[in-house]
Specification:
Radius of gyration: 46 Å
Number of helices: 17
Number of strands: 16
Strand order of the largest sheet: 2-1-6-5-4-3
Shape: elongated
Structural class: alpha+beta
Helix content: 40-55%
């Protein structure tokens, strides 16, 4: 043990408590079988073993056995009876501790750290005590029978009842005392009582004393013990579990004492065993009634405290939500099925405008002139709130022309249905957010216009350059200038023109994939890849391009072609000198996604640049290979706008692997057919393979 002196003090304390309780029990012997009226030592023993630990348990059991034998021998028990009582008391305490430890781990059992605090805990303690006492009584009566003492069934009930009463009174009370005084919870008053509680305890004690004297103080008392029920109820309701336990112990102990003195309603029972049973039932019911009421009140108080904490937390969250809502720059509106505003934040009022009397309705055409971007009026059934309450999701731009004199603005509107607040009254509601994108749309339109102007103004002189370059090439070939020199110069002019043309094409492609509306249709990826590969197969390095058949995705056809053109083009271009490009376009599909891979045998991409290559105008290999720095930026933008993602990794065989994830195209009718190689291939109804398993 870590602290031998402390362990010795603890052991001595338990031995002393058990000895005192044992002596008190032995002085209440009521028959020749040495069965006492009460046995408080049962509660002390159960508490002793229940609060022990694995390391202390052997020593505690040995010490308890010694104290049990000494107490019984000192009070007149024979050595045989003493041995029986040692076995039954140890067995009873062990069964109680094991049952409570299994049913309520941590409930002041070995290694536990808390006392009973609910009706469930009390039920576990009471049930475990009843079972443990039943086992001990059965073993004890068997031993008495073997000793030739001829125990009776009433004696068996008396044995069981006296030990159960001891555990329910002394044991439960001890657990509560340990929890309150020995290990007080941080932040709680511990042993301190409020003045009001102390006054109530004193008044109740006086009342209980008067009732005990009135009921048990006379030799021939009428059976009015039920009057103590009033005091027991008050103790359970007002004093809590500890106070109720102390009150039950006091009144029950007084009833037992008067019964032993031949006074009170139980003293008139002629049979001593029956007299003891009545007294034990009275004590047990008194203690249990008070504890049940006290634990029930404690549970109710904890529930009320939890409810109050939940209400406070809900209020804080509501206040926080309101603050966040009011500070949002986007307008937020909640409407009912008729378009009445149920909630609007400050930004929503500012964007939509205030109506006289704030009785506005979101669909009021007299005030909210909402149009499509082409200028056509939004019909009543097309209004975002109307579509949302019908269960649709809306995300679109609208032109709003308020009637309060403000300039028209372009709003990005997102509307969604809201679940009903009351399931019994499922009124549809909608939440709508508004964002002013007038400036953003203006900038976007300006950028698109700029891209068009740049493309137009640069392509026209490049066309002229190409035309004159071809004419000069013919004249140089006739001899005015050395054909070789002239052709080399013209080749540079032509190369520059071609490079500029490619740059412009890439710039236009990036503008398209960035701003153009996205279509979501079933795209035949294999056919698109074959079309793209056909262009690159004619290059001088004669690349080999393999395309897996039967691949489909839900995407935009134009953007998919941009993705494949750039990935296959890069794969055939970025190879080492003298190496014939080999490109494989493969994929696999599941219910949700299509994974398309483009694998090459090229020069690869440095690991530190695999994310940067998707940025605009970034070139991983500098001037060693010609390029505009827009190809992979176009790929990422196009894939993301189609709802997918793209990553790049090394090809284990040398080169690069681009993985493109796109939403899978929905299948209609599916049939299965075995392939010559064994695996089953799932086909679309039109016969094109779409899944490989």
């Amino acid at each position: 043990m870590r602290n031998p002196s402390r362990a010795a003090v603890r052991l001595s304390l338990w031995c002393g408590l058990y000895a005192v309780a044992g002596v008190l029990g032995r002085v209440t012997i009521i028959d020749d079988q040495a069965l006492s009226l009460v046995w408080p030592a049962a509660g002390v023993g159960a508490l002793w073993i229940a609060t022990s630990t694995r390391q202390r348990l052997p020593v505690d059991l040995l010490a308890m056995a010694g104290v049990v034998y000494v107490v019984n021998a000192a009070t007149g028990a024979s050595p045989a009876l003493g041995a029986v009582f040692v076995v039954t008391n140890l067995l009873q305490a062990l069964v109680f501790a094991v049952l409570v430890g299994r049913l309520r781990p941590g409930l002041c059992t070995p290694g536990g750290d808390r006392a009973p605090r609910s009706l469930d805990d009390l039920g576990v303690v009471g049930g475990s005590a009843a079972a443990a006492c039943l086992v001990a009584a059965a073993v004890g009566h068997l031993a008495l029978t073997l000793l030739g003492l001829d125990p009776t069934p009433l004696g068996f009930a008396l044995w069981w009842g006296r030990n159960l009463t001891g555990i329910l009174t002394v044991g439960v009370l001890g657990l509560l005392v340990i929890a309150r005084y020995a290990t007080p919870v941080a932040g709680q008053p511990g042993a301190r009582l409020s003045r009001r509680t102390a006054c109530e305890a004193v008044a109740l004690s006086a009342l209980s004393l008067g009732l005990v004297l009135a009921i048990f103080g006379r030799a021939e008392a009428p059976p009015v013990g039920f009057l103590l029920l009033f005091a027991t109820v008050i103790a359970g309701v007002r004093l809590g579990p500890l106070g109720a336990g102390l009150h039950g112990l006091g009144t029950g102990g007084a009833a037992v004492a008067f019964t032993l003195l031949g006074r009170g309603p139980f003293a008139g029972v002629g049979d001593l065993t029956e007299r003891a049973l009545y007294a034990q039932v009275f004590v047990t019911m008194t203690v249990l009634t008070g504890l049940v009421l006290a634990f029930n009140r404690a549970e109710r108080n904890r529930a009320l405290l939890g409810l109050q904490a939940l209400q406070a937390d809900t209020a804080d969250r509501a206040q926080l939500f309101e603050a966040v809502l009011e500070h949002m720059r986007e307008g937020v509106v909640v409407t009912d099925a008729q378009g009445e505003f149920l909630l609007r934040n400050t930004a929503g009022r500012a964007l939509l405008g205030e109506l006289p009397g704030d009785s506005s309705r979101v669909q009021d055409p007299a005030y909210y002139d909402m149009r499509h971007l082409d200028g056509s009026t939004v019909l009543a059934e097309e209004r975002p709130f109307r579509l949302a309450v019908q269960g649709h999701e809306v995300l679109a731009d609208y032109l709003l022309r308020p009637r309060d004199g403000r300039d028209p603005i372009v709003l990005e509107v997102a509307a969604s249905p809201l679940p009903p607040s009351d399931p019994s009254d499922p009124q549809p509601r909608a939440i709508i957010t508004y964002r002013d994108v007038t400036a953003l749309r203006h900038d976007r339109d300006a950028l698109a216009s700029f891209s068009g102007v740049v493309a137009h103004d640069l392509k026209r002189p490049l066309t002229v350059i190409n035309g004159w370059s071809e004419a000069l090439a013919e004249r140089f070939a006739d001899g005015a200038v050395e054909p070789g020199d002239g052709l080399r110069m013209l080749d540079r002019v032509t190369g520059a023109a071609v490079q500029m043309g490619r740059f412009i094409d890439d710039l236009l492609s990036y503008t398209v994939v960035r701003d153009a509306p996205v279509q979501r249709v079933d795209v035949d990826l294999s056919a698109a890849a074959d079309d793209a590969a056909a262009v690159f197969r004619e290059r001088e390095n004669r690349p080999q391009v393999y395309v897996q058949t039967g691949l489909h995705a839900l995407a935009d056809p134009v953007m998919v072609r941009q993705v494949l053109d750039n990935l296959i083009g890069n794969a055939t271009k970025y190879v080492a000198p003298g190496v014939r490009p080999r490109v494989q376009v493969r994929g696999r599909e599941d219910a949700d996604w299509t994974l398309l891979t483009v694998t090459d045998n090229g020069i690869g991409i440095p690991p530190d640049q695999r994310e940067q290559v998707f940025e605009t105008f970034h070139r991983a290999h500098g001037e060693a290979y010609r390029g505009t720095g827009l190809g992979l930026a176009i790929v990422r933008r196009a894939v993301e706008r189609c709802g997918g993602s793209v990553v790049v990794r090394d090809n284990p065989g040398g080169g690069t692997v681009f993985e493109v994830r796109l939403p899978a195209a929905p299948l209609t009718e599916v049939v299965e057919a075995p392939t010559p190689d064994g695996p089953v291939v799932r086909h679309r109804a039109d016969g094109v393979a779409s899944r490989h398993t």
